[in-house]
Amino acid sequence: AQSVTQPDIHITVSEGASLELRCNYSYGATPYLFWYVQSPGQGLQLLLKYFSGDTLVQGIKGFEAEFKRSQSSFNLRKPSVHWSDAAEYFCAVGERNAGNMLTFGGGTRLMVKP
Amino acid sequence: DAGVTQSPTHLIKTRGQQVTLRCSPKSGHDTVSWYQQALGQGPQFIFQYYEEEERQRGNFPDRFSGHQFPNYSSELNVNALLLGDSALYLCASSYSTGFGRTDTQYFGPGTRLTVL
Asked: Which of A13, B19, B36, B101 is deepest in the core (most CB within 10 A)?
């Protein structure tokens, strides 16, 4: 069965600083990979996804992520964080079958210092 | 274009009761998945409905059941509620291609269920 690990439960960065959130997965083949963001009391918003092709994917709000097969990782990055980026971030693996069932990591809570 | 909608927003029930949660998918989507998100955790897959049938199921007991209607909307039913069922229940909709393969899932705002 697939699994997702987000090693950092909490991360605090200063506004304007760069950001990298880590995600490691376990899956028998090349998975579908996703990053979602969740603001307090809200649902999940899709930031970006990787299905195949170019391993560096661009998303909304200036985020990008890089798929590294050799490291089983899909880390999320942003060059300059804004206060509005404070939220919980979830990495997810999708099964390459008809249902594309998602398995989520435990999440990383991002706090932004002014 | 309306996104995924869920009702109600919040719900309070007591142990042993039954609850029904509702979800309307995005326009053009035909597949609905349900997830449970306990406080401080990532969402966990409950099941997925496609063509009015349960296509895939996660590791949840039979107390959790669902339904999909011809207009693609869906219900999640939970019987004999336990305290541990308290969670945010998220609905996600997606489009399944001609080969039945599901594309990216888009989530609704969720229903917060509290079991006392």
From this structure: B36
